[in-house]
Design a protein that fits this description.
- This protein is 27% helix and 32% strand.
- The chain is of the alpha/beta class.
- The chain has 2 domains: 8-145 and 212-251, Vaccinia Virus protein VP39 (Rossmann fold); 148-209.
- Strand 6 and strand 7 form a beta hairpin.
């Protein structure tokens, strides 16, 4: 297995991640349904601080988590320990991890696949997921559906997400690289005192690659998946053109 390289972004932002990162509306319930339907072992890729994995464990799902960031998974373990759970965690890169277990379901919540920045990395990761699935297994993940109107502007306007909540502000700005479908973003969190004064701030760079719906379908088919569904958010209905979130379900 290749040497694990910790993400600088997740190392820097891990202590604040649960403050500003709430996922996508409806994703926890969706993934819990998928996990409960699975008749066997489940693997969550990029399990982070346990937003999906811990509820799945509480529901009795036989689930393991994989993530690149020790900082994030240390938080997961601490949260799980407080409620008497002992999660099975693997520190590895999604491109090249090697596990003895084979899974009936692999999930990748909250757009984590967009951290694969090249076509080569995407191919390696998807083929690796395929190889870790049982013959009747499936892969379920969600990513954002690229907004052509926003991409056409060539940049993100600097904006505030979440406002002042729990005495913090979260800033996000970024730029597009059209040729490589890359977004390079700068994210910053400001912690505030009761009077609204900034007492601490942290800034980090996040780089992701956006993927168009049928580009992703082709990637999955090239990886060996026999059937691919592209869904309208977490509804299990066909994708609509203006849907912000797409869910892909790929069957081995």
């Amino acid at each position: 297995m290749a040497k694990r390289k910790t993400s600088e972004f997740h190392a820097a932002m891990a202590p604040y991640y649960d403050m500003y990162s709430a996922g996508v509306k409806g994703d926890v319930a969706f993934y819990l349904r998928e996990c409960k339907k699975a008749k066997g072992k489940v693997l969550e890729i990029a399990c982070g601080t346990g937003r999906i994995l811990i509820p799945a464990m509480k529901a009795g799902v036989d689930i393991a988590g994989l993530d690149l960031s020790r900082e994030m998974t240390d938080i997961l373990k601490a949260k799980a320990q407080k409620i008497g759970l002992k999660p099975k965690i693997v520190l590895a890169n999604m491109r090249d991890f090697k596990l003895k277990d084979r899974f009936v379901l692999i999930i990748i919540p909250y757009r984590s696949f967009v951290h694969m920045l090249s076509y080569q990395d995407q191919k390696k990761a998807l083929r690796n997921f395929y190889n870790h699935l049982k013959p009747d297994g499936k892969l379920v993940l969600n990513v954002f559906n690229p907004d052509l109107a926003r991409i056409g502007k060539g940049y993100y306007l600097k904006h505030l997400r979440g406002g002042i909540k729990g005495r913090f502000r979260y800033w996000d700005e970024g730029k597009y690289d059209f040729a490589n479908q890359i977004i390079t973003g700068i994210q910053m969190i400001e912690l505030l005192d009761k009077k609204g004064k900034v007492v601490k701030s942290k800034k980090a760079k996040l780089v992701v690659r956006y993927i168009f719906p049928y580009e992703f379908k082709a990637l999955l088919e090239l990886a060996g998946f026999k059937k691919v569904e592209i869904c309208d958010g977490f509804t299990n209905k066909p994708l609509k053109s203006k849907t912000k979130e797409m869910v892909l379900i790929a069957y081995k």
